[in-house]
Structures are given as structure tokens and as C-alpha cells.
Amino acid sequence: MQSQLSERVRIHVEEEFFSVDKLLLVEHSEYFRALFQSGMKESTQKEIQIQDLSAVGFAVTLKVLQGEHPLLSCEENLKAVECAAFLQVRALARYLIVSLNSDNCIILYQAAAMFGLLDLFHSAALFIRDNYSDLEEYLDCLSPDLLDYVESLIPSTFVAVGAHTPTFEFLEDLSRTICYLEEESNTWRTLSCLPLTASTFLAGMATLDNKIYIVGGVYGYNKQVVDQSFCYDPATNSWSEFPGPQQLRYDVTLTAQDDNLYAIGGEFEKTPLKSVEKFNVSTKTWSFVSDLPQAAAAVPCAQAMGRIFVCLWKPLDTTIIYEFEPQKDEWLPISTLNRPQSYGHCMVAHRDNLYIMRNGPSDDFLRCVMDCFNLTTMQWTSLPGQYVNSKGALFTAVIRGDTVYTVNKVLTLLYTIEENTWKSKKESAGFPRSGSLQTFLLRLPRTDHSIAT
């Protein structure tokens, strides 16, 4: 059977023919897996005709299965949804989910409802709910049922966590809280208090399935590492613990994808680390994956189009972007940028763009300069203007739809991303705490969580 699957087959769709590896189709398509393993005459034919399917959609399907990352037109999105449903290709459905944006979310929502792709349907509805005010004028095309479903969902909320180290219970410590911005009243409110043994100082933090995960962190003068990890579930307003990484680490970067957390680099006993560990949330086990190309702490990391990217800095003034490919367990160099900087840089993603923010030269270190790397064209662009850290706090950037949320003690500043420019959109209350922050988006139950901070 394996030798039969290793050959190529011609697939006839509409007026076009596609020469495809049988094994690729069997691996990713329930339809072709059943066909080729059925024992029927079609399972051994060199050419197979697929009825009632578009060549455009099948071409998109093959591109995605072969590892490409195409930007799809309206027609291609429609035909891709049809193919994902008819051929039962989960990888294509996932690609459509990570490709959701303000231009395609409505059409993908309607198409997913029509063809029964439930994960895409729900993800598109959540995207529309999060960006309801920006999309409202275009929602007239939705049926009452589809609109009702969107409006029944809970939108995401901007959440911030300050740097905190473990303390005694009887000592009041306002930094030992997770807070959220109630935008209607322009007030920061307390969501939950951190566990007494948890530290967010130099910890890795990430969200997965609408839960916050905290890994690492230190306490005490000697930077002792917290060996337990913590998870906060806003649905139940409860905390749970899970094991820390096999390698104790602080100043670690944490990111989440699918059912896994990735603890990237960090330090231990003042020594930078190259190692990377993966925590499977279902099995609650840690395992090592491929090392970073170089030892690094506080690694800038972002996910674009479902792909994981990091920035590694090398003297003199060189930043290299790497992509981590979980299936191959490899770190692949993507591009290099040479820019003078004094300290610090971070990265966020919007659509197929990576935005790199860094402090300017040492004689003007309060200024934050930005560069954009486009993953489709593989080209760099310097964004016009400079943004002052003391106002915009761009190192805390979180993106929802086409809106960027940044925050510091002075104010919360929102930007709108238009092409390759960030335009000031709105100012809200600053976060009422000093020190460094980590920020996220969470969906909070419809309850009055606490009093204002």
C-alpha cells in the first residue's frame, strides 16, 4: 500500500489537470484517504476526476498543503472554503482561520456557515465581534441568524499584568493583580490577584484557549527561579498550577500555538540559554525542541499567519528574524536588518507583516523607531515618523483586528494600522502601576469582576 501511495496521480478538476503526490492527499484529506484506501477501482487509477469542485479552490488547497502561504482574493477564499469542506482538509481550514482579517472575515463567516466548517465559522464570528464597531457598516449583508450569533459572543478585552515578586500574604501589594481596561467607563479594574507564590518579574507569559499562562519568574536578591508554573482561567476566575520547564529559566519568552506552549531561551544563574522547551497542555508534559541559533533572553516573538517568529540581536546593530517550524523542528533564518539601537526591541504581527520596534541611538534613546517586514514580498519598509516611548509605550503593543493597544502609566494609546502606517486613534486611561508590563487580550465573562483599581 505504501508504494502505491508514493506515486503521483493526475487530478482533473473542471478544465484543469493537477499532478499531485498521492501521499500528500492521503495525509491531509479525509476524502482522498477514503478513496485511495477503499479498494475500489478509483484507488488505483492514474487519473481521477473530481466533480462539482472548482479548479481555483483546488489550486489554493495544493499551495497550502505544499507549505506556501498565499494571500487569497475574495473568490479564492470562497472556493477554498468549499474545498476544505468537500475534501475534508483540516490544514486548509486552519490556514483560513489564521488568515482572518478585516477584509475577508465577513465573506469567510458566510461561506463557513454555508459549507459547515464550524471552527472557521466560530473563529470568523469572534473576529467580527472583536472589531464590531469598525465593521458595523458592512454587516447588513449578514442574515439575522448570523448577526445574532456574532452579537451573542463576548468580545476580547485589553488586559495588563505588572511585574510582581512573591510576598507575604499580610502585606498589601497592588502589583499582585491582573487588571483589565473597561473601555466604556475608561477605567482600569482588577480582574484577579496572582497566587502568593507566583512571580511575573522576568516571567514568560502567554494566552492559550482564553487562559493566561505564567512560566518562570524570579524572587529574592539572587534571582531564585520559581519552579512551578501557573494558569489563570477567567471563565471560572480560578488559578491552577502545572510543572515548570525541565531547565529552570527566567527572562524567558513564552508563546502558544495549537495545544502547546513554547518557552524560548531565557537565563539561568545569569547565563543566557539557547534551549527551547514545549509544554503540551493536554498531557501536561515538557519536552525539548531545537535550540535557538544563539543564546538569548527576553527574545522578541510574534505570530503571523499562524507562524512563529523571533528576533535575535547580534552586535553590531544586527537583527535576524528566524521562523520556527514545529513540524520540522527547525529554526530557519528569514531576513536580516541592520539598524543602530541603544537597548531593547520588540516585535508584533499584523496580517503578513512583522513590525520591529526598537529604541533609537544612545543619544536619543527615548525615541522608538519602527521597521516593517512583509512576509509575502520579503521586503523591509521603514515606517514614517518616530514614536516616543514615554507616550506610546510601543513595547507593550497588542493588536486586535486593525487596532494596536499600547499602555504605560500615563495613558493607553490606540493606533489604527493603515497600510504601513500607524495612526493615533484614541487615548484612554493609563495603567495605574509603575514598572514593566505584559499585555494580552482575553474574553471575560459578563460579570462585574471587581472595583476600579
Our estimate of the beta-strand percent is 35-45%
Overall shape: globular
CATH class of the largest domain: Mainly Beta
In round numbers, the mean pLDDT is: 91
Radius of gyration: 24 Å
Q: Biggest sheet: strands, sense, closure? A: 5 strands, antiparallel
The termini sit apart by: 65 Å
What's the total number of strands?
A: 32
Determine the structural class based on helices, strands and strand pairing.
Answer: alpha+beta
CATH fold description of the largest domain: Neuraminidase
Can you give a write-up of this model?
With 453 residues, the protein is an alpha+beta fold. The protein has three domains: 1-98, 2-Layer Sandwich (Potassium Channel Kv1.1, Chain A); 100-153, no CATH class; 156-443, Kelch-type beta propeller (Neuraminidase, 6 Propeller), CATH 2.120.10. The protein has eleven helices and 32 strands. Strands 23, 24, 25, 26 and 27 form a five-stranded antiparallel sheet that branches. The chain has a four-stranded antiparallel sheet with strand order 6-5-4-32, with no helix packed on it. Helix 7 runs antiparallel to helix 8 (118-130) and helix 8 packs across helix 10 (144-152). It is globular. The model has no long low-confidence stretch (mean pLDDT 91).
